[in-house]
Specification:
This protein is an all-beta fold and 131 residues long. It has two domains: 33 residues, no CATH class; 97 residues, Immunoglobulin-like (Sandwich). It has no helices and twelve strands. The strands form three sheets. It has a four-stranded mixed beta sheet with strand order 2-1-3-4, with no helix packed on it. Strand 3 and strand 4 form a beta hairpin. It is elongated, with a radius of gyration of 17 Å. The two termini are 15 Å apart.
């Protein structure tokens, strides 16, 4: 169940629960902790998940293209921040784009900055912030 702990000016701490299993820390109704995050390895052409929070699955769509499915949907107004690395010795560095974002999923597309080619990382991390 989601337990929301909200610090409200003049009221103090207000808690609510909705049954989804997520903890939200809020300040005046704005969530201040990550709603979801993931750390995974797509380098072998499939997903090897290291750790996740509020992520039901990660789908390998194609080289440099991964869909993150959230366990509990958001209000759709979130920020997903991806990062990763290419293989050792590669002079080109990765760039990421978030596409196809819905309340319950989004896609990360990874390319290489200099060549423009899509590529798998050795590891990818993503954090999701919002309400």
């Amino acid at each position: 169940m989601t337990t929301t702990i909200n610090a409200v000016a003049g009221t103090g701490v207000v808690t609510t629960s909705d049954g989804s299993g997520i903890v939200k820390l809020q300040s005046a109704g704005v969530t201040t902790n990550a709603l979801a995050w993931a750390n995974f390895d797509p380098s072998a052409g499939s997903i090897s998940t290291r750790a996740t929070y509020n992520v039901s699955s990660i789908v390998y769509n194609s080289t440099g293209n991964y869909t993150i499915n959230l366990t509990n949907a958001t209000d759709g107004k979130y920020v997903a921040i991806p990062a990763g690395t290419t293989t050792a010795g590669t002079a080109d560095y990765p760039v990421f784009q978030i596409t196809a974002a819905t309340a319950s999923a989004f896609t990360i597309v990874q390319g290489l900055r200099i060549s423009g080619a899509t590529a798998n990382s050795v590891w990818v991390t993503v954090a999701v912030f919002g309400n």
